[in-house]
Amino acid sequence: MRRTLLVTSALAAACALAPLASALAPVASAEPAADPAVTVQAVYGPEQFPMAGVAADIAPCGGGANVATLTTGVDGTAVYNGALGCYRVQVSTPIGCALDSDPAVQVTSAPGVTPPAIFRFRCA
Q1: pLDDT band at 4 (very low <50, low <70, confident <90, very high)
Q2: What's the first-to-final CA gap in the chain, in angstroms?
Q3: Residue 20 above 70 pLDDT?
Q4: Torsional sign, CA 31, 37, 42, 48
Q5: Sign of the dihedral defined by the CA atoms of residues 64, 74, 116, 85, in that order
Q6: Is a pLDDT exceeding 80 seen at residue 88?
Q7: C-alpha 110, offset from chain centre
Q8: Are 58 and 69 in contact (CB under 8 A)?
Q9: Where are the alpha helices (DSSP H) in 25-124?
Q10: Per-residue pLDDT tens for 63-83?
């Protein structure tokens, strides 16, 4: 009789805790979050302050139409969340500024690697 009571109470406790355990278990998503394909960064001055409002066109390296046009935010960055691969990033120079390098940069993204396209400006 005692064994029956012990087994019954153990089974009842296991059944009562099973829904709670499944609710607390982490849920695996069907697809992992994708890495961004390209990060554009615009800075100015020797201190490399972030530069907002810089327009950047993103196009495939092999040529073709632009896949996106981004504008940097207050932190000086913009992110393109497209497919991984090779991209050509070209910026427009804001009025009153000069670009320290070529206005176009080629970057190649891979799983786990988000290459930055960094543009440095000199502004009056």
Answers
A1: low
A2: 92
A3: no
A4: positive
A5: negative
A6: yes
A7: 12
A8: yes
A9: none
A10: 889 999 999 999 999 999 988
Q: How far is it, in rounded angstroms, from Cα 42 to Cα 97? A: 12
User: Are the C-beta atoms of residues 67 and 60 closer than 8 Å to each other?
Assistant: yes
Q: In which element (H, E) is residue 105 found?
A: strand 104-108
Per-residue pLDDT for 91 more than 90? Answer: yes
Give the number of residues written for the chain. Answer: 124
CA distances from 19 to 13, 15, 23, 24 (A): 11, 8, 6, 9
CB 45 within 8 A of CB 124: no
Predicted model pTM: 0.70
Measuring CA to CA, which residue among 46, 55, 45, 47 is closest to residue 94? Answer: 55
Pairing of strands 38-44, 116-123: parallel
**Pair 122, 49: CB distance under 8 Å:** no
